[in-house]
Queue: 2 jobs
Job 1
Amino acid sequence: MSDIKVSIKNLYKIFGPDDKAMVQKVEEGATKSSLQTEHKHVLGLSNVNIDIPARRIQVIMGLSGSGKSTLIRHLNRLIEPTSGEILVDGEDVLAMSVKELRNFRRNKMSMVFQKFALLPHRTVIDNVGYGLKIKGTAKDEMHERSQKWIDRVGLSGFEHNYPAQLSGGMQQRVGLARALATDAEILLMDEAFSALDPLIRNDMQDILLDLQEELHKTIIFITHDLDEALNIGDNIVILRDGAVIQQGSPQEIVLDPVDDYVRDFIKDINRGRVLDVSAVMEPGSSDAGLDFAATVLLEDAMPAMVKADVTRAKVVREGEVIGEVTLAAMIRAIGRPESHEGEQVTYR
């Protein structure tokens, strides 16, 4: 298991003049609605507990008003919590002095915003290098490092353009390059691709995944789009009314939604593009002569089995057979959740 980079413990955020007293009301059962109606306070976060692994993409998702953007803004203390703990590499962010917090924001975390947040009077290369300038990096080094990330996100030749001369997708590439240029270990992305057209959004997701394969950053990604969450997330947390409803791998959430709220999220997804053969394998070792790596997706495994005219195949990880998968199990798995409710599955 990966080591934990960020640990959020018992985190509450209540908006209102008597916020600390309202924590007890919530602990006694007050809901977001009743807190607002009876006490004129707004529940932003309710007893949030999340351990975020290092060098992975952690997705936090939910509908509008679920608290996801409020949560991510606590990690760099753009919002102060009502109570709770936020630990980064074991260090208490909430105990940092003003100077310590400034250095933490400059060196440890970078943020990519939904609305790009570019400086309109600065060129692309100056926008990308802005964080380095704030850190006091020499001009030649700043431009060299900025150019590297401009090239990496596919904007070579646009270094001296201004944001207004770029498309939305290009502007978001500038925002991503700016966040990466500071070489921060943690990347916060708040609905970073939500304002983009679907094709451009998919392109940006691919760019992010390609970069992550090399850089291995700890990325905390906020979205309301389940397809996006399943595409990029190593782990997913689902929020509702400021509380964590479910957290786990994409496969765990798709195979075992905890309630109707989560089931509504996943009901229309293409399950064959999320689940791999290890998620639905069974004990045993097929003698069919066909085998799949544990990470092969069902949408790729099923046609291969049909072409080979077999109904069973071995599942292999690191050269060892770890089980077998049947065509019937795959067909059940890609059906609607109700069609295999209660079925026992083995996760990776």
Job 2
Amino acid sequence: MNRQVQVHLLPALFEPQDVEGGIAVIIDILRASTTIVHALANGARRIIPCSEVDEAQQIADGQPAESVLLGGEREGVLIEGFDLDNNPFAYKHDVVQDKTIVFTTSNGTKALLRSAGAARILIGAFVNLESLVTVLAADSRPIHLVCAGTKGKITVEDSLCAGAIVDRLLTVTGVSESDWTDDQLRLALNLYRCESATSESFRAAMRSGYGGRNCMRLGFEAQIERAGTCNLFPIVPEYNHVTRAIERGPLELP
């Protein structure tokens, strides 16, 4: 059976109602998606996404102080008064175990909240690629791969990951590539196939895009390398519409 799969290279390129009834996969490789997977894999209880700093602080103030951490960034760096930034290496087991993390970032959390009408919202990254594809392949609903971008601009790293997901879905579902005619999907798929031809070209692509250049400017080269590493964690974080939090998931088994 042909699966409906679409890539949205920016949140602004779809309307919230377009994803209703489907599965939205939030892709913000540098760095929100990668960080969320790390945090939950390392024992965080849940992550509450917020679009604004003030909102995050208000939500955190309503939680028991010993059980909550404020995490996120603005302009790529730690927000004043927050406990953690958006560095996946910072979300270690001894820091986040059993904690609720109230989380706001410049791009990723906003992409998630724009997708709130989807039946399921999953967090996708290279670090959980294979597990994500397994969950997607087992669910028959339309798939929307939502790239967060950076400051309203399309980014190479998010597009690469969307292309990698499409490439793996083609393999595991047996769908003919000619059945998926969405132009944004084909752009992402072709980019991934071109830039992943060698590990060197893939790493260069991760560093040279708009998001990668921002991270390099801030001295985050190790984080770029980490974000481009596949299949580190066998989890698929999922947004719980009832609690309005991202949990380890999957919440709904096929």
